[in-house]
Design brief:
This protein has 6 helices and 8 strands; from the N terminus they run αββββαβααβαββα. With about 210 residues, it is of the alpha+beta class. It has a single domain, classed as L-fuculose-1-phosphate Aldolase, CATH 3.40.225.10. An 8-stranded mixed β-sheet has the order 4-3-2-1-5-8-7-6, with helices on both faces. A hairpin with a 4-residue loop joins strand 3 and strand 4. Helix 2 runs parallel beside helix 5. The protein is elongated, with a radius of gyration of 17 Å.
């Protein structure tokens, strides 16, 4: 059971190391955050420029919901994407944990000018990723990106960001947000593997 912010800091760092090991996060690409459960007008976010497998709870940076650093014990600057995280938290009280990542296949798909339409392939993926939604490109760290992502999260809790990466949110755990992120990457891996066999792909019948 999560009792305080410190527990969530530990959970965040553990998930970050797992996603880095899975190559879902790159050395300095990606960022995680959570809304404080002790004081709801604050959130904690990963620092800018630190290698992802080296981030520990004491490195996380506490910020107010108006974008001010209120705890500088992390000894660094917050991720440049803090405006996006802050805007997502403000959108809905159930958006409590955020993972922004750069999975290789999902990010590659986000770069395509005319991406193919991919059907639901399995029951599990249909449940975790009911629709592949791509948020139009906005500059990293901009309020415009935060606005676009926050609005799109009403349609799906995991999104592709055009020419950028992936964002997922959860209301109860970083593990659930990570499951959705991995599922999206698995979606593209399964699609590519299926295409190698040739022939027409059969969509999962329960989602046609």
């Amino acid at each position: 059971m999560i009792l305080n912010d410190h527990d969530l800091k530990i959970q965040l760092c553990q998930i970050m190391k797992e996603l880095y090991s899975d190559k879902i996060l790159t050395d300095i690409g990606g960022n995680l955050s959570f809304k404080s459960i002790e004081k709801g007008q604050y959130f904690w976010i990963t620092p800018s420029g630190m290698k992802k497998d080296l981030v520990e709870p004491e490195h996380l940076i506490k910020m107010s919901m108006d974008g001010k650093v209120v705890d500088e014990s992390g000894n660094g600057d917050p991720s440049v994407e803090w405006p996006m995280h802050m805007r997502i938290f403000a959108e809905d009280e159930d958006f409590k944990m955020i993972i922004h990542s750069h999975p290789p296949l999902a990010t590659a798909f986000s770069i395509l000018k005319e991406p193919p339409e991919i059907p639901i392939l399995t029951a599990e993926l249909g449940f975790l990723v009911p629709e592949i939604i791509i948020v139009p490109y906005k500059q990293s760290g901009s309020t415009e990106l935060g606005e676009a992502v926050a609005e799109a999260l009403w349609d799906s809790n995991v999104l592709l960001l055009e020419n950028h990466g992936v964002i997922s949110v959860s209301e109860d755990s970083f593990q659930n947000a990570a499951i959705k992120t991995r599922a999206l990457e698995e979606y593209f891996q399964l699609y590519l593997n299926s295409r190698r066999f040739g022939g027409e792909i059969r969509p999962f019948p329960g989602f046609e």
